[in-house]
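Subject: Sanity check before I submit

Could someone independently write out the structure tokens for this chain? I want to compare against mine line by line before I put it in a report. The sequence has 297 residues.
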Amino acid sequence: MKPTALLAVLALLSTSLGAGGDTTQARSGNAIKPPEGPVAVAFLLSEGATMIDFTGPWEVFQDANPAGREGFRLYTVAETTAPIRATGGMKIVPDYSISNAPAPNVIVIPAQSAPSAAVREWLKRSAETADVVMSVCTGAFVLASTGLLDGQAATTHHDFYGAFERRYPTVSVQRGKRFVEGPKLATAGGLTSGMDLALRVVERYFGTDTAERTAYYMEYQSAGWRDATGAANAEYAASAQSQPGETVCPVCGMSARAGEFSTEHDGHAYHFCSEACRTRFLAAPELYANGGGRTMP
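---
Independent answer below. Compare away.
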């Protein structure tokens, strides 16, 4: 090869390689320039945090290995460093409290108990300088409680679409999406979709090659991180949604079964899609009673 041709090839390669030597992900934009050192990822936890919502993304970030540089540095944050219990009873001692946690580049918010005013303030303050703030499952409720999602599109677990829409009417709920991503704020549907969103974050920082290697190492065969539309679940999701003239479940917004799963509350009859949703309603009817259990126009 002639020297001029070799230089041309090298020049082309230099423009097509991302941080750490991986190909950049021009596939869908939103690339993030990584910091000089590792990307700091804070996992915000409280009582009842759903295990896979945060351990799934944790595994993704810990396994990501961009060529030629450090990847991610992970730590847990809670209101205090007192032990908390996640779902299933696992005891976790947070690494930091909100008063001394290092500034994160990425914040992960799994499903958990409702945040205090102090936690909401930490989240808003930390989000100002973070590259990505991502919720998983009903962690979207925690994120929305700060006002950061006002006027934005978001998603959450499908069982909670209706409740989320009623509590945060200024947020545009995207049903059936694997995750919804903006330049900074991102929300995943729940459970395993948090791993897809985490892989997408890896891709945004270090390119598609690194994300692919991470998924391969993890034996993770879902393609959800490549396609946030949730196309793989589209047929089921469409069939599960309520149709005009049907009664909708006040908990999740799916088609309800009048008479099969029903209850009385405050002088009104409510109908549900399942016993699980009826149980959720009975545990906290104030969250769901406003306008629920009705017939779709």
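---
OP: Matches mine. For the report I'm noting this point. Residues 82 and 93 are 6 Å apart (CA to CA).
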